[in-house]
């Protein structure tokens, strides 16, 4: 047989391993491999111990380019030949030492020798072996939905544990393991048991193990993985499989099978329990006595159990969910406590991704020390020491010695810790996030003198059930400060000299401005201590000696001072604080609180100051029998919360008596209380009271009332000066002259006095009606009736007295003379005559024929018409 001249050429099957193709070709040609390989340009290795020549025991691992070119002369392309070797999985599912053509068994569960197999596949394809069966990651056949078999059913050897003997014609589908004769392996006799007779466990189409194998096949066929826990953080396939190996080892080393019940079906666990019962040496698939999972598990069942659990972990949606799943692989916390540290879990796997490292940290987080939980940000969505050194080294500048009061109240656990001891500990804990600081260094940076107390307090908080919530809040806040530093440089403020804070003369001035008595030394000392803590962020026992408060009675007095703050005094003190900062060249707000939206979604252990109804609080705190404790109980909150709210939103003071206002020199403030702007305007504009009368009414000096009017923006009038209310001449003329309204009606509409409107009408040249006589309303009534009357009455219904004139005319018509009529009507005869004469002038003719000796008084035709109209309409 000449070189590369084969009488029969056999095409490789899709996915077939190179040695399987060699054996199939040799079997078809009925020739041993020792004759076939030279024809393919390959040299058979005749001795296993000969390691000096580059002739591999297993050609399936890797072909050199020259070897691939030689074999390609048979008609199979070099790239297809490479796909038939484990080289196609190199740096993804296996690691190969290309110099020695050895699979590195300690990495990625590489298998140097041996192969699992599917009996059904061997039966269907005539004994051909897919390359994927050689991978440590393959434990199931997705075509026939069953676990792969591990051993020959007769001799119990692992197939392909050694290369096929080159001097024997290969028999496909049969076990090629050598038989033992007299305790020694035969070089020619082979088992030749049909491997199709091997039994393996059947899996359903929805079996978790089969789904895990499908997921693994998809991973191995990919370049990067960006789903499951890798969403948003894609990782190379090799790294993902390293993560898979790391988690699978944890599953295999679970203390009990009960730890895996939630992830692995019962049928697999039952089978695995049988494998675990095998002793080393009893079977080729027995588990090693120690370091299980360090290398490829010997059995498909063991591999299936570990990888089914591992796929379950890596398929979760985020790191914290994966950690919760992984945590179930661990022993009980009490047994495991003290055995774990962030450095020890790094030994759980090499070349792993940051994602699985974050999962491991989150999984063991509850078992770590509180400082390690903060350093590695265990409570964050992605644990790990991610913060840059520069940011951590700068963070302390923006953290006060006393933790921010609002956040301190929100994070206050139910351990009975006082805020004044809790707040420095929280500030120290904030510096631990993402850093390697120790307690001593954190205390030095924050100017906290008692570092041992911080350690003790943090340990107490760590033992509280709400620790995870508190640590989550601290991690979020640290991240926020690293990205968005606080507007206050607390480190600079810690170094300021506060000796001259709030001098006595300034305190006296702001006391007068705020309407309080300045008192002696105690009240000014408390005001300085209050300002010191707000400005410096340090406790008051670190203040200058002349206003330091470091005893319980002094702290009680300071708490009372804060509860008694008024809005005016708080505003004055804030101005003093700003002046103090400006004097040191600092342009910063007096205080600052981190945004509360960082706490979204957390069930906080403490109380929320914003939940306190401020108006109700002010009502309660100003009651005569009020105390902070009673107020807190009535509001269902804590004393510290009430004090904090009052420091930020002080309650308005109770109204002072006149004597108290005079005693404190606070008359204008008192006047403002008893005489608000609306009442001042009503008295001055509507009632036209003078400033003197208003001052006398309330017992206030004229100067105070005048100043109050200017403060309210009320334009005061001067004697004889113009009226401050603007009146349009045309409008006033129309209302008064045309509409015949009275000045009183118009003045009421304008909100001014009759006298002022009369003065304004004269200034505008409005023709005024004479005063006296009947009311203007009756005149308007007469005019309205005249419009509806017949023409003869319309002429006489003019002005006031028209009805009286007509009634007397009608009554006089029944008498024989004017004198008799006047006597009977009990009116003056001259008045009656004048009224009749006016009617005659208005009608343009006589109404009576006057009486004489010969005839009595009688109506003229005009008089008769007028009388008839009167009887009919009036």
Automatic annotation (TrEMBL):
<feature type="domain" description="HTH lysR-type">
    <location>
        <begin position="806"/>
        <end position="860"/>
    </location>
</feature>
<dbReference type="InterPro" id="IPR036390">
    <property type="entry name" value="WH_DNA-bd_sf"/>
</dbReference>
<comment type="similarity">
    <text>Belongs to the LysR transcriptional regulatory family.</text>
</comment>
<dbReference type="GO" id="GO:0003700">
    <property type="term" value="F:DNA-binding transcription factor activity"/>
</dbReference>
<dbReference type="InterPro" id="IPR000847">
    <property type="entry name" value="LysR_HTH_N"/>
</dbReference>
<dbReference type="GO" id="GO:0032993">
    <property type="term" value="C:protein-DNA complex"/>
</dbReference>
<keyword id="KW-0804">Transcription</keyword>
<dbReference type="GO" id="GO:0003677">
    <property type="term" value="F:DNA binding"/>
</dbReference>
<dbReference type="InterPro" id="IPR036388">
    <property type="entry name" value="WH-like_DNA-bd_sf"/>
</dbReference>
<dbReference type="InterPro" id="IPR009492">
    <property type="entry name" value="TniQ"/>
</dbReference>
<dbReference type="Pfam" id="PF00126">
    <property type="entry name" value="HTH_1"/>
</dbReference>
<keyword id="KW-0805">Transcription regulation</keyword>
<protein>
    <recommendedName>
        <fullName>HTH lysR-type domain-containing protein</fullName>
    </recommendedName>
</protein>
<keyword id="KW-0238">DNA-binding</keyword>
<dbReference type="Pfam" id="PF06527">
    <property type="entry name" value="TniQ"/>
</dbReference>
């Amino acid at each position: 047989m000449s070189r590369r001249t084969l009488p029969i050429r056999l095409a490789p099957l899709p996915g077939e391993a190179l040695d399987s193709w060699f054996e199939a070709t040799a079997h078809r040609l009925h020739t041993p491999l020792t004759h076939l390989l030279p024809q393919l340009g390959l040299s058979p290795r005749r001795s296993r111990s000969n390691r000096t020549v580059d002739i591999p025991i297993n050609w399936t691992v890797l072909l050199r380019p020259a070897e691939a070119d030689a074999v390609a002369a048979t008609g199979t392309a070099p790239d297809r030949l490479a796909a038939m070797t484990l080289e196609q999985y190199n740096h993804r599912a296996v690691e190969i030492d290309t110099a020695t053509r050895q699979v590195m068994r300690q990495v990625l569960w590489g298998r140097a020798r041996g192969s699992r197999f599917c009996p059904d596949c061997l039966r269907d394809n005539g004994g051909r072996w897919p390359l994927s069966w050689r991978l440590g990651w393959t434990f199931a056949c997705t075509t026939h939905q069953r676990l792969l078999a591990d051993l020959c059913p007769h001799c119990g050897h692992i197939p392909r544990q050694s290369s096929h003997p080159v001097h024997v014609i290969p028999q496909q589908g049969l076990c090629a393991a050598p038989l033992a004769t007299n305790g020694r392996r035969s070089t020619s006799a082979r088992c030749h048991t049909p491997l199709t007779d091997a039994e393996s466990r059947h899996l359903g189409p929805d079996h978790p193990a089969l789904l895990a194998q499908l997921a693994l096949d998809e991973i191995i066929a990919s370049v990067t993985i960006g789903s499951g826990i890798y969403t948003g953080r894609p990782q190379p396939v090799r790294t993902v499989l390293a993560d898979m190996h790391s988690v699978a080892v944890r599953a295999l080393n679970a203390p009990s099978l009960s730890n895996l019940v939630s992830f692995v079906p019962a049928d697999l666990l039952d089978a695995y329990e049988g494998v675990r019962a095998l002793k080393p040496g009893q079977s080729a698939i027995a588990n090693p006595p120690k370091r299980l999972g360090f290398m490829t598990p010997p059995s498909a069942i063991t591999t299936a159990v570990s990888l089914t659990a591992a796929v379950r972990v890596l398929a979760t949606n985020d790191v914290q969910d994966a950690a919760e799943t992984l945590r179930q692989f661990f022993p009980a916390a009490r047994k495991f406590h003290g055995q774990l540290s962030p450095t020890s879990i790094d030994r759980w796997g090499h070349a792993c991704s940051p994602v699985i490292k974050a999962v491991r940290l989150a999984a063991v987080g509850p078992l770590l020390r509180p400082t390690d939980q903060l350093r590695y940000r265990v409570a964050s969505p992605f644990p790990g020491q991610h913060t840059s050194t520069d940011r951590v080294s700068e963070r302390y500048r923006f953290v006060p010695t006393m933790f921010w009061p609002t956040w301190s109240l929100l994070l206050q656990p139910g351990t009975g810790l006082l805020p004044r001891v809790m707040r420095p500990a929280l500030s120290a804990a904030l510096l631990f996030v993402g850093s390697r600081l120790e307690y001593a260094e954190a205390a030095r940076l924050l100017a906290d003198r008692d570092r041992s107390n911080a350690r003790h307090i943090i340990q107490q908080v760590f033992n509280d059930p709400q620790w995870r919530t508190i640590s989550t809040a601290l991690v979020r806040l640290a991240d926020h400060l690293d990205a968005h530093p606080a507007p206050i440089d607390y480190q600079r403020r810690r170094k300021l000299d506060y000796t001259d804070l709030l001098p006595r003369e300034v305190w006296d001035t702001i006391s007068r401005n705020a309407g309080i008595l300045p008192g002696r030394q105690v009240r000014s000392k408390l005001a300085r201590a209050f300002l010191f803590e707000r400005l410096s962020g340090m406790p008051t026992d670190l203040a200058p000696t002349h206003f330091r408060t470091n005893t319980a009675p002094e702290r009680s007095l300071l708490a009372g001072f804060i509860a008694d703050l008024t809005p005016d005094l708080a505003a004055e003190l804030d101005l003093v604080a700003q002046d103090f900062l400006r004097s040191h060249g600092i342009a910063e707000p007096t205080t600052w609180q981190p945004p509360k939206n960082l706490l979204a979604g957390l069930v906080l252990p403490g109380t929320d100051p914003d939940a306190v109804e401020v108006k109700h609080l002010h009502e309660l705190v100003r009651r005569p029998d009020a105390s902070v404790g009673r107020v807190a109980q009535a509001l269902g909150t804590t004393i510290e919360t009430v004090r904090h709210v009052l420091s930020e939103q002080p309650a308005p003071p109770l109204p002072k008596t006149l004597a108290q206002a005079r005693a404190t020199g606070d008359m204008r403030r008192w006047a403002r209380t008893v005489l608000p702007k609306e009442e001042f305007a009503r008295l001055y504009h509507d009632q036209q009271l003078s400033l003197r009368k208003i001052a006398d009414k309330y017992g206030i000096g004229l100067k105070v009332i005048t100043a109050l009017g200017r403060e309210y923006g009320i334009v005061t009038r001067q004697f004889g000066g113009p009226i401050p209310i603007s009146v349009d001449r045309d409008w006033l003329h129309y209302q008064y002259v045309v509409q015949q309204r009275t000045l009183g009606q118009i003045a009421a509409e304008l909100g001014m006095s009759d006298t002022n409107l009369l003065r304004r009408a004269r200034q505008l040249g409005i023709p005024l009606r004479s005063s006296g006589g009947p009311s203007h309303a009756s005149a308007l009534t007469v005019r309205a009736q005249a419009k509806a009357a017949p023409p003869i009455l319309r002429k006489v219904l003019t002005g006031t007295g028209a009805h009286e004139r007509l009634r007397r005319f009608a009554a006089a018509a029944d008498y024989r003379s004017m004198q008799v009529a006047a006597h009977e009507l009990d009116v003056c005869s001259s008045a009656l005559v004048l009224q009749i004469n006016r009617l005659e002038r208005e009608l343009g003719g006589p109404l009576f024929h006057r009486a004489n000796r010969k005839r009595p008084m009688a109506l003229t035709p005009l008089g008769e018409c007028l009388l008839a109209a009167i009887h009919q309409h009036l």
